Amino acid sequence: MNIPNKITVSRILLIPLFLIIMLFPFNWGDMYFLGVDMPVTHFVGALIFIFAASTDWVDGHYARKHNLVTNLGKFLDPLADKLLVSAALIVLVELRYIDSWIAIVIISREFAVTGLRLVLADQGEVAAAKTLGKIKMWAQIVAISAFLLHNTIFELLSIPFDEISLWIALIFTVWSGVDYFVKNKEVFINSK
């Protein structure tokens, strides 16, 4: 397994740590930061999530720079992204920060696209992430991070950045999902 794939696997391995920090009843106290009162565990969980999400850029950059792009990496990278985002969305629903229907729409899109990728793989094609999918991913990361950090900084300005960014992420999620299916419609046309 090459270095980019190991970085991708580390992203997956950080998910249980993120879940433990966010959901177990640790009492590390609260912190007051830039006008926002938040539990220390949420701040630590947000840092773990942001670090894990940033490895998406690191592994991709390293793989392209050193010509280490593999089919395993093309499979593992989006899987790691989907697992991380799904875990974070479920945590946000559990904490009652976001509505469950939003998480369901986003996670459903991820399952649908993963299913399509499996069909494509069965036909000998490995579909790497496209630009719209990457924008979708980063929009989701920004929105989730804003919620995990309790809208810090923007709270002082009375701007609901977390909610705005979540709607942007939702729009890109649906748009990129539809685009993915439209661009691969021949799978359904040619299927028996």
TrEMBL record:
Lipid bilayer topology: Multi-pass membrane protein
| Recorded metabolic or biological pathway in which this protein acts | Phospholipid metabolism; phosphatidylglycerol biosynthesis; phosphatidylglycerol from CDP-diacylglycerol: step 1/2; Lipid metabolism
Tell me the keywords, alphabetical order.
Cell membrane, Lipid biosynthesis, Lipid metabolism, Membrane, Phospholipid biosynthesis, Phospholipid metabolism, Transferase, Transmembrane, Transmembrane helix
TM segment ranges: 12-28, 40-58, 141-158, 164-182
For this protein, the record's InterPro entries field holds: CDP-alcohol_PTase-I, CDP-OH_P_trans, CDP-OH_PTrfase_TM_dom, CDP_ALCOHOL_P_TRANSF_CS, Phosphatidylglycerol_P_synth
Q: Which domain of life is it from?
A: Bacteria
According to its UniProt record, where is this protein located?
Answer: Cell membrane
Q: Does the keyword Lipid metabolism apply?
A: yes
Q: Name one GO biological process term.
A: glycerophospholipid biosynthetic process
The terms describing its cellular component in GO are: plasma membrane
Q: Which family does it belong to?
A: Belongs to the CDP-alcohol phosphatidyltransferase class-I family.
Alphabetized NCBIfam families for the sequence: pgsA (TIGR00560)
The record describes the protein's role as: This protein catalyzes the committed step to the synthesis of the acidic phospholipids.
The protein here is known as: CDP-diacylglycerol--glycerol-3-phosphate 3-phosphatidyltransferase
